Amino acid sequence: MDTRSDEPAKRIRVTSHNIDQWPKFKELLDKDKVKFDSLGRLRYLHGAPVGDLVLNRISKDGTPIYKESAAEWFDPDSPKASRFVWP
Question: pTM of the prediction?
Answer without folding.
Answer: 0.77
